[in-house]
Design goal:
Layout: H1 2-8, H2 23-32, H3 35-55, E1 61-65, E2 80-83, E3 92-93, E4 106-112, H4 121-131, E5 132-143, H5 147-156, H6 184-191, H7 193-199, E6 203-210, H8 214-220, H9 234-243, H10 248-251, E7 254-261
Parallel strand pairs: 1-2, 1-4, 2-3, 4-5
Antiparallel strand pairs: 5-7, 6-7
Helix pairs in contact: 6-7
């Protein structure tokens, strides 16, 4: 598997330090040449917006945590793009576990593949209870825990693990990207859901779903691997995604969790 992973790795990223300052710049160049992946990110943005409209009420700030190189602001300009590092593409830097925000000021937080990088999830949930308006919430897109995803995530990434049986919500991260447990959303919101609900009675898990665009995400290679098929085949791949919809829970790579502060 290591030989296959090395072969599939994007040549422009082979010397990348995932915790280094050049990560965003290099990933931005990757995204520029991958139309297929850009479409996947835009669909994630649409999912955020759709679910916020369905489950969250009232006015307030809308903030994306860990916005990175494909911020939701590109699709919805009213959303503030934040990350833990400074970047021209972001509105501000923010620590998700100790936010510089007023109490009950936020309608919606959005997070794409960032929650499993939080070293202290309990601090994040405490901040959600403090900063969210009643009826507001957080929407997280995270690595899925289905059979195919679990097989793939355990083998593809050298800097991150995937341990569904890890005993703690906290992981021994060695940097912003290194050491994360990609199974964290499964551990907290599925395996330990009753514990979550007991510890945070003001927060409700109101919705979960799997993302159906996993064939394009996989074929695009994401931000770290080679694209396997040309962009000209995007319509064909979308048709295949529709055919595979009934088995998405076996094959999906990402899922969405919607958390709402009780009104």
């Amino acid at each position: 598997m290591k030989a296959l992973r090395d072969f599939l790795s994007d040549p422009s990223l082979r010397t990348l330090d995932v915790d280094g300052p050049e990560r965003l710049e290099l990933h931005e160049k990757v995204l520029e040449r991958k139309r297929m992946l850009r479409e996947v990110f835009v669909e994630f943005h649409y999912s955020f917006h759709r679910l916020a409209g369905r489950y969250f009420k009232g006015a307030g700030l809308e903030i994306e945590l860990g916005a990175g190189i494909a911020p939701m602001r590109d699709s919805y300009p009213e959303v503030l793009a934040t990350d833990i590092v400074a970047s021209e593409r972001l509105d501000r830097a923010i620590n998700a576990e100790a936010m510089d925000l007023d109490d009950s000021s936020v309608k919606a937080f959005y997070g794409q593949n960032c929650f499993h990088h939080f070293p202290h999830p309990d601090q994040f949930f405490t901040e959600l209870q403090r900063t969210l308006k009643p009826g507001g919430g957080a929407i997280l897109i995270e690595p899925y825990y289905g059979a195919f995803a679990a097989f793939l995530y355990k083998r593809l990434f050298k800097s991150e693990g995937f341990d569904m049986h890890f005993g703690s919500w906290e992981t021994p991260s060695t940097g912003p990207m290194n050491g994360a447990n990609q199974a964290l959303s499964y551990i907290v919101f599925v395996r330990d859901r009753k514990l979550f609900e007991t510890k945070y009675p003001d927060l409700q898990i109101v919705h979960q779903e799997v993302c159906g665009n996993y064939p394009r995400y996989l074929i695009s290679g994401g931000l770290n691997f080679r694209q396997l098929l040309p962009d000209a085949l995007i319509p064909v791949i979308k048709f295949v995604e529709k055919l595979l919809y009934p088995v998405r829970r076996l094959l999906a790579l990402h899922h969405i969790v919607v958390i709402r502060r009780k009104p």
